[in-house]
Design goal:
Largest sheet: 8 strands, mixed
Number of helices: 7
Strand order of the largest sheet: 7-6-11-10-14-13-12-16
Shape: globular
Helix content: 10-25%
CATH class of the largest domain: Mainly Beta
CATH topology of the largest domain: M1 Pyruvate Kinase, Domain 3
Order of helices and strands: EHHHEEHEEEEEEEHEEEHHEEE
Structural class: alpha+beta
Strand content: 25-35%
Number of domains: 2
CATH architecture of the largest domain: Beta Barrel
Radius of gyration: 22 Å
CATH superfamily of the largest domain: PK beta-barrel domain-like
Number of strands: 16
């Protein structure tokens, strides 16, 4: 039976003594989603909510909350936080605002609760700023995305497929589809990039797309000509040759990023920027199979 470190000799709850734990660099990233209606979303983005700039106020609230976590959660230790960053990813099509909080410290215990508190209070502040406009705002999907440092090591939420997309011609925005069928040494059936090239399938992380959503909230899946949009995995840090098991297919990473030869391509004209050359990756198909939204991604 594991030792119950959070109880004293009387069987009552206590704050754990961390005096003997080593001081290490620690990071925690948490996320959540605020769902509003299209009218409220437009007012937030245009800065027309009567209480003021919703995202600016919510961002400050999240930072303040991270610093006050030990005052709210009874057994949390006061921590000397070295950094807090709150970011937003507005999604116009779904009238959602994704929130991500990254908290860092150098100390004897982690900052998971600080990150989770930060995204929660950020979301509650958005609700407070907008409640006179809409009462049925939903706060969902609050979770720890990853953490580093400490004796428990690294944690990352399971990487998954967010969407799959295809196009009939090259150099155009791809459209979301329900599933894609991959053929060994060929690529995606009925996609323009299939063939003998080593760039048979393109992948892009939703985290990369989120960096641009504050400027371009209308971005849809496939906007950067990606075949597979992922979550929970840093694609551009994968070494060439890495094998990815997705659905019942097997891919091999063949290229990281690309050179954008055409500055006036359709993708850049419609989005204002193109993140694919910087953070997208390409792969070849080693094993035929089918991939759809929600499939897990495993680095083999």
């Amino acid at each position: 039976m594991p030792k119950l470190t959070h109880f004293n000799t009387e069987g009552r709850a206590k704050m754990v003594d961390i005096s003997d734990k080593p001081s290490t660099q620690r990071t925690a990233v948490a996320g959540c989603t605020v769902k509003v209606n299209s009218e409220t979303f437009d007012l937030i983005i245009r800065g027309e909510i009567h209480k003021g700039d919703v995202l600016a106020v919510a961002q400050v609230a999240g930072i303040m909350a991270a610093k006050r976590t030990s005052d709210l959660i009874p057994m949390c230790h006061p921590i000397s936080i070295t950094g807090v960053d709150i970011s937003f990813s507005p999604d116009e099509k779904r009238s959602e605002i994704g929130i991500t909080a990254t908290v860092r410290c150098k100390g004897e215990t982690g900052v998971e609760m600080e990150a989770l508190t930060a995204v929660t209070v950020t979301a509650l502040t958005i609700y407070d700023m907008c409640k006179s406009t809409q009462k049925d705002i939903q706060i969902t999907n609050t979770r720890l995305l990853n953490k580093t440092g400490g004796s428990s090591g690294e944690y990352s939420s399971t990487p998954t497929v967010i969407a799959v997309c295809t196009s009939e011609t090259k150099g155009t925005i791809k459209k979301p589809v329900s599933e894609i069928h991959l053929k060994k040494s060929h690529g995606i059936v009925d996609d323009a990039h299939a063939g003998k090239s080593h760039r048979q399938v393109s992948l892009l992380a939703s985290e990369s797309v989120d960096k641009l959503r504050c400027k371009i909230p209308h971005l849809d899946y496939g906007a950067f000509a990606e075949n597979i949009l992922t979550s929970g995995i840093c694609l551009y840090e994968l070494p060439i040759g890495t094998k990815l098991s997705i659905g019942n297919a097997l891919l091999e990473v063949t290229q990281i990023g690309k050179e954008c030869h055409n500055e006036g391509c359709a993708i850049k004209k419609q989005t204002g920027d193109c993140v694919m050359p910087r953070e997208g990756i390409f792969a070849s198909v080693l094993k035929s199979g089918t991939i759809k939204s929600g499939d897990k991604i495993e680095v083999v």
